[in-house]
Amino acid sequence: MILCSAVAGRKLLQNINKVMRIGTINGLRCKQLKLVILAFFMLFLLWKWERVTYYHTEILQPDSLVLTHPANSKFVDQHTSSEEDFPSTDPLPQSVVKVEKQVTSAPPPLSTIGYSVDVSDDKEEPRSEKKECNYRNGKWVSDNRRPLYSGFGCKQWLSESWACRLTQRTDFAYEKFRWQPEACEMPEFEASKFLRRMQDKTIAYVGDSLGRQMFQSMMCMVTGGKERPDVEDVGAEYGFVLARGAKRPDGWAYRFLSTNTTILYHWSSTLCDLEPLNPSDPRTSYAMHLDRPPAFVKNNLHRFHVVVLNTGHHWNRGKLRANKWEMYLGGAPNNNRNTAVIWKAKNFTIHSVVNWLDAQLPQHPQLKVFYRSISPRHFFNGEWNTGGRCDNTNPLAKGSGVHLNHSEDADAEGAVRGTGIMLLDVTALSRLRDEGHISGYSIKATQGVQDCLHWCLPGVPDTWNEILAAQL
Length: 472
Fold this sequence. Notes:
Blueprint: H1 2-22, H2 30-53, E1 56-60, E2 97-101, E3 118-120, E4 138-142, E5 177-181, H3 191-197, E6 202-207, H4 209-223, E7 231-233, E8 251-256, E9 261-267, E10 273-276, E11 286-289, H5 295-300, E12 306-309, H6 317-323, E13 325-329, E14 332-333, H7 337-340, H8 342-360, E15 368-372, E16 401-403, H9 410-416, E17 422-424, H10 427-431, E18 437-439, E19 451-455, H11 460-471
Parallel strand pairs: 3-16, 6-9, 6-12, 11-13, 12-15, 15-17
Antiparallel strand pairs: 1-2, 2-3, 4-5, 4-16, 7-8, 8-9, 10-11, 13-14, 18-19
Helix pairs in contact: 1-2, 4-11, 8-9
């Protein structure tokens, strides 16, 4: 393009010289005319140059955001790993990441991960203006003081299959990054200080397996990954007992006796109330009440001081069929065909539970509620069951920074808007960390489906908890 501009420029100069020999035009002297035309010529070259190097916005389509987690044996799933299951995928409305990159050659295919871009909105605030504190925006920076706990330790709280140091994985560069917000002061997480701030308080994580990862991450962060005999298992106080034939209880709860701080997790993959239609039949179907919060949350809300909710990856037809979940509204089977669409049912449920909690806040002045945005998947070159992989080991291959005016999780942002529920927005910053997933590594080094949804711990969920602690 620049060569063509130069040829056009030479032709323009030849024409200028011809005009110069004619004399003056409309009273202008030759010298003056030549200067005017040369000025236009320079502007022309500058315009062509900018056309070559101008930054343009391109749409990068992420993977559809769906996955799953069975809490116990009464919910049947397609089994593909010892820890979690992957579903048949129902299409959900995909979020769109807008990224900026300099055009210097033909753009690579969108499925590759070898180029660096930063997540960004089209409209950025002027650099001179003071920016509002939003933990969504910032950048990943290298920090040799990380991780916050040992990947070989924390055996008391951390599931083995999520402790990637215990697998055959050999690269651990993903552990050496921390999130630096753009316009916020985020103090270093200090376990003792956090426990003192949470004295006589209860933190409840309620959601799917990614909520459980966040819970286990917090337990490791607060204990430093070390054995703590002064931490008491109080799961029975919340009904967390292992049912006959179940793989795991519906949750865990631990109390730090020194500060009377309780940290618990309750499994509720869809954040709506599940009720057996025939309690006496072990093969019964379940009413999935889209307009009711989980009974556990409703019954224990008065005991909580911090609640962190999440859902998203269980919302697909295959999961509903496998678990015999039937949508209900108003206590009766849902006959609204519009609401029956999976992504609309999910959005309806999120709004329902958020609005219910917002209405409860005046009665519980001690309570702070966060809705955590969805955690992105990173299946490249296929799906979970068609050869999709996430075996990149190059940190930040897609960029290090986020500059967005809105959340990538539009459903989450829309649900909390106008309420007292706070958004814990982790989607965009997590999308830049595709190297931090479990991938194909396992304890027994067996070949199988790659886990490109769950994260290695220590890892990205630690940052979610750091942002939570900062917002508290």
